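Possible race condition, two jobs.
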Amino acid sequence: MAGEELITFTPDLRIKTCFHEAAHAIIHGLHPFCHVYSLAVAPEGTKEGEWEYRHRKGGVSTDIWGVCRTSDTNLLIRWFVRWDRDEGCYVISDDDAVAHYSEPSAFTRSARIRHIRAYCCGLLAGQTAELILDCDGTDDSIWLDVDSDQRGSDMAKVAGLIKLLPYRNELGFLIEKTEESLRDPKIWQMVADLAQALARRGRMEDDEIDSYLPSPRKNWPGSPRPRIPARWFKRRTGDLA
């Protein structure tokens, strides 16, 4: 807006953004069916709104500082949830989407659920890494703010996708798994190494990223079911909302 001072992309803000995007990539990398194909960060000194990211298929993203693109970016959003402008949140798309989600196929229902959980952890990783970075490596507890009314934001996507998961404590479980993984010294070192590489290069693609990623984990991130009392289970008979 006229008369407002535009935010400048300072060195501190840039390195925090690099950690944010690198954490997305590293946690996405734990899931065997998620390919991280592009990372990018704006140059130091950029003014708010000056930088843009050009997608492979010709699209352009603006008003951002950094990007982590994966093979399933927004795929689950397009399939199963939509943005409800009146409610200001993502909601389950429609009966057809839920039926597609539930029907048997080569990509089994349990695999879909695991895929959604892993994707949510990847989305949660950026903000979680920033909070850990602010703790300066200590074990201080962090508070992840998942309330968002911004369409397309990581937190808004997570809030929509967990409606497709079976148990009541899915969000808390996924937040815990994401933080637990990022606080693993080996994983955090991977985040730091990738963040430094991204800071140097500005943009990384495919093979440039692969060598920094962890080995995928089987059945990542697991299920909250064994961790909670049976009385807390959410009945799944026809109830995905």
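Job #2 (started ~2 s after job #1):
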Amino acid sequence: MKSFWWALRRGHEPLLGIDVGASAIKLVELGGELDRPTVLRCTAQPLEKGWVAEGSVEKFDEVADALRRLLRLSGTKTRRAALALPSASVIARKVTVPDGLGEDAFEVHIESEAAQHLPFPIAEVALDYCILGPSPAVAGAIEVLVVAARKDKVAERQGLAEAVGLEPVIVDVESYAARLAAARIIRTLPEQGKGRLIALFEIGTLSTSLQVLRDDDVIYERDQPIGGFTLTQSIARRYALSTEDAERKKKMGTELPADYPQSVLQPFLEALAQEMGRALQFFFTSTPHNRVDHVLLSGGTASLPGVADIVAKATGFDTRVLDPFEGMLSEAKMAVGLVPTAFLVATGLALRRFYP
């Protein structure tokens, strides 16, 4: 997968992948080698509603305290960390640059191209880029992926890590980290997934994102307004529970009444599958494509029983649940209530230790 990140310091030393989400902070630490990583640590710490909103840390001290607890719980001694910004906080564009420019001229050209697409002054922006290769449309030019985010957004993630004694060495983008982790699984598909259209759904707390991938390219992206919290709300309403109790019972998978599978879970899964089908239809109507080869499901909600079968029935496409730890060795014990599918972004961040 082509990728980029704001690398503050690089190296192959131990690295923590830390995913700061709307409902939890997740941590993954990997060891071993890239061809056979070992899961050393994998844990999470819940966050209260509103502490992180739309990717921004609204309650810095509370989130920092949660991160401290997470580090203590994990038992890690590693201090180097990779974090990520939400995709909505980042602007990415492919630009064409004349080949053979000197370093200074190249960077001036990149800044000039980026400035044309930014809604705020270039001085307020952190830029990074990835050279993709020769331009397919312009002779004597190269294609470059330019990525920009406000400096204060990058500094927010950096400051959060530093507040708890971590050394932030990478600030990535959530969608790119997810694709890096998914790429390992895509290579296990027929013909290693080459040339296949892959629909990667990440079922988050408040929304579900779709990325349609083909080899190194992102063909299409879209968010749908349904996530795991929708199920939590349904449980709370049906059984007169607090949101906190409903969330706990949902994650534990126990203590819910006998009618839960049919009265609450099944309708939610059908609604979720319908939204995924709708997202794919938007893709088909706005591109030349009329099908995908595989659907991959990730996020904590993807671990719910029967979700893959229901999505496959609703969409008509081969569907499987994506376990980011598939094919890895493991020395970590997953705590009760945690599921591997929730750790896609954190795993992608942790995998950065194997890349120069």
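Residues 189-321 form a domain with the Nucleotidyltransferase; domain 5 fold (CATH 3.30.420.40).
Logs attached separately.
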